[in-house]
Amino acid sequence: MWIWQQPTWPEFTFDFQRLQPFLRQAVYLQGKLNGSSRAIENSGLTLDAILANIIYSSDIEGEKLDARSVRSSLANHLGISDEVTFPTDKRTEGLVESALDAINNLAEPLSVARLLKWHALLFPVEGLFHRIQPGRFRDGPVQVVSGRLDKPVIHFEAPPGETVLCLIEKFIRWFNASRHEKHLDPILRAGIAHLWFLTIHPFEDGNGRIGRLIMDLALAQAENTTVRLYAMSQSINEKRKEYYLILEQTQRGGLDITVWLEWFTQTLSYAIEQSLTQIERTMAKVLYWSRFDQGILTAGQARVINRLLEGDFADGINNRQYMAVAKVSRSSATRHLADLVEQGFLVTGSEGGRSARYRLNKP
Questions:
Q1: What range defines the domain where residue 301 resides?
Q2: What are the residue ranges of helices labelled H in the chain?
Q3: Which residue from 190, 23, 201 is spatially nearest to 102, judged by alpha carbons?
Q4: What value does the mean pLDDT of the chain take?
Q5: What is the DSSP string of 167-189?
Q6: Least confident piece of the model among 196-200, 225-229, 341-345
Q7: Within this chain, do residues 127 and 248 fall inside the same structural domain, yes or no?
Q8: Measured between alpha carbons, how far is 220 from 76 in angstroms, rounded to an integer?
């Protein structure tokens, strides 16, 4: 029995007491991220977070995007750049427009028209081999299947096509009303919304991507901000096998979705922690370069220093690794490293000899 076949679907239940520690951690990290972001200019972080959400949300579905095209379109839409520095197409523009609509228009209610608009933006033209009808709900059955043709494994079967419109309208009413529900945690609301929409599976294709747009909209509403500093889709992509497994287990079970909400909340915390790490590295870079004159370095030396600041070579860099990164000979690497130590950019570890490793000279 699929979850949507339960007699009281979609009246979900969950163990709030069990979820409380995970929610407290997520809220704490949200506050920490908000505070950390104020210390630096965050327009670039916002672009990177939205870019990652678009790229990885498509990657989850097995579609590879050209990051340069998406970044160029995003920079233009965000007003960071007036020029399109890399060619874009209708597909790229549609992905960017739908992503920005989900996080920028917090006050606009979710509606059938808005969902159909997102779908049309995701599929601006019909495919040659898989004809998707853009901006239309499905009217037929859908199964998620893997394995051999003679021995298929059915991972999920969606509700009948003739019930889609009724189910979606009920979901939309709940989504819009639940934003003002005082007894429903807004993070849990985002997790419920994502699962509920994916279970209805209203489109022939693109359900995962639109489900993650709904998730982003709900999280933006939860934080009451349009500034995106973390990429939930990137973290889901890193945990893709877990994601599909927990969805399948939940959709095959009863209406208690505690396990799904626990996974969702933990993944949200992980996404925020990744962003905090990036902010810390950015601040470390700013502090480091405020102490040194980057202009006196060769291109290879600057590249090595920046790799170390990015967190690469956590144990320090040796002569051989320096050769590879700076693209110089062994003798040049030895000379460059000696110069960097003499000028105070690096310090030598205690290993000595050929095993010597060089680390950043941090205060």
A1: 293-360
A2: 16-37, 43-60, 67-77, 90-104, 112-122, 164-178, 186-200, 207-223, 232-238, 240-251, 258-291, 299-309, 319-326, 330-342
A3: 190
A4: 88
A5: HHHHHHHHHHHHTT-TTS-HHHH
A6: 225-229
A7: yes
A8: 22
Residues contacting residue 80 through CB under 8 Å, at least 6 positions apart: 43, 44, 47, 74
Among 267, 271, 253, CA closest to 199 = 253
Of 170-174, 260-264, 319-323, the range with the lowest mean pLDDT is 319-323
- C-alpha 292/C-alpha 334 separation (Å) is 21
Q: Are 29 and 276 a contacting pair, CB within 8 Å?
A: yes
The verdict on 198 and 121 lying in the same domain is: yes
pLDDT at 36 over 90: no
- Domain CATH for 334: 1.10.10.10
Token pair for 180: 């003002």
Q: Could you say which of 282, 317, 332 is where a domain stops?
A: 282
Using DSSP, state whether 145 is helix, strand or coil: strand
Q: Report the 10 Å Cβ neighbour count for 182.
A: 4
Return the percentage of the chain with pLDDT > 70, whole number: 92
Question: Cα(138)–Cα(121) distance, rounded to whole angstroms?
Answer: 16
Mean pLDDT value across residues 93-113: 91
Cα 181 from Cα 104, distance rounded (Å): 21
Looking at residue 75, its pLDDT comes to 81
Say what the pLDDT of residue 150 is: 81
d(CA 21, CA 354): 49
